Amino acid sequence: MSNLQPSTIMIVGDNADFSYLMQRYVRRGGYRMVVAGADEDARALACQNRPAAIILEADLPGAPGWDILQALKGNETTRDIPVLICSWSDEEERGLMEGAAGYLRKPVLYEDFLGALESVVIR
Fold first, then answer.
1. pLDDT, tens digit, 9 for 90 and up, residues 86-109
2. How far is CA 95 from the centre of its chain?
3. For residue 79, what pLDDT is reported?
4. Which of 108, 109, 123 is nearest to 9 (CA)?
5. Hey, how many other C-beta atoms are within 10 angstroms of the C-beta on 23?
6. CA atoms within 13 A on the CB side of 46
7. How confident is the model at residue 29 (pLDDT cuts 50, 70, 90)?
8. Cα–Cα distance between 70 and 100 in angstroms, integer?
């Protein structure tokens, strides 16, 4: 029997439907999770919890999703945590240039989510 704990995934977003769906996907994938709204300090929570990856909703009013990505990538403690951007917009190039490990277009299907997550998380 293994003593290994499942990896923790952090979900950052303000849309209740998005957050609910991502939580279901994370749970179904066998991961643990930490959930934060965009108004919370995602960087501080990431430093505290050291998640294996962060799922970040980019479609937030006033573009805080992109600001959160920049804050995470600009911090020595969090810069190496893979961030997967989720967005309605076609801004994959921007996300990758700003340091995201991957980009998922909404609506996010479970198979796409799991494939992207497994490509950045070592269990």
1. 999 889 999 999 999 999 999 999
2. 12
3. 95
4. 123
5. 15
6. 29
7. very high
8. 9
pLDDT above 50: residue 1: no
Among 112, 110, 109, 102, CA closest to 58: 102
- CA 106 to chain CA mean position, Å: 14
CA distance 24 to 37: 16
What superfamily would CATH give domain 8-120?
Response regulator (3.40.50.2300)
Peptide bond into 107 cis (omega under 30): yes
Asked whether residue 46 carries a pLDDT value surpassing 70, the answer given is yes
Distances (CA, A) of 117 to 2, 31, 82, 96: 22, 10, 9, 15
Q: How far apart are CA 123 and CA 107, in angstroms?
A: 26
Q: Where are the domains of the chain?
A: 8-120
pTM of the predicted model, to two decimals?
A: 0.91
